[in-house]
Amino acid sequence: MLYRQQRGLYQGVANILYGLGAALGGPVGGWVNDKFGWRVAFYMQTPFFLFSMVVVATKVNITLSDEIQSQTLMEKVRRIDFLGSLTLVGSVGCLLLGFSLKSTEEIPWTSSSVLGLFFACAIFTAAFILVEKYWAPYPVMPLRLISQRTPLAVSLANLFASMSAFSMGLGMAGFITSTLIAMIAAVYRPDMAVATGITYLFRTTGQVLGVSLSGAVLQAVLLARLRGRIQGPDAEQLIHSIRHTTLIIPSLEPPIREAAIASYGDALRVVFLCQTLISILAFITCIPIQESTMPPPPPPSPVPQSSASSQSNADTIDSADSSNA
Fold this sequence. Notes:
This protein is mostly helical.
């Protein structure tokens, strides 16, 4: 639908609207949740979903190739990489569950539940690679693309940048736009849609991993600092309350309150230090990205002879009127 030279501009506009919605969604959703309950916060999104579905169904008109249009419904369904998607979801899901159990349920790293989830993640990851390489006719992440220099660098850069999105701030929009254009310029036209999907795959995976890892690091450091500063018979119960809600901090006794604030400060500093290191990794992975020359867009179609004659006559009349004036 768009030439490659125009993709950056339109992608930037789309990222602005996406960022605006993401920025407004959190505060508005939190206010609705506190004022009317979480059910209303979910139900109020239904009209927006329906409106988006109607706009996409009525306004987005992409002409597919004759080969795809001539296929039956079952042939089109077979093009979907169900097994690859299932193994990918299993891999990311088990990894996130492992970090979630460690950070929220206070289960140690050596627990059978955490280790079992990490082991399942490794199994699903290996299965995903085998499916994408040997099984899926139309893989969700073709290894022939991800093994190339620029697509691999762009994918890793988006993974790390999305993990550190909180520390990158305003630079994230420009980062994802420029790396996406680099990815599109590095592949052939038939692979552009798949390459775009790979970019979004690593970006969304990085977002969920970044939140989970940050939460795990925050809770681990916070627990260690609180146990080092708060002692006594009821220390564990008090530490549990401080870790699970910050609303209790203003009502604590001054020494305990100062210990809680200092512990949260230490934990946040470690989290942002980790975010900074991941941001540096995102910068390093951008270095191998190649600069590809994009072909110029085709020239505009020539004006028909009749239209050209009419335009010439109109220009002559305009010139005569100007002379008489």
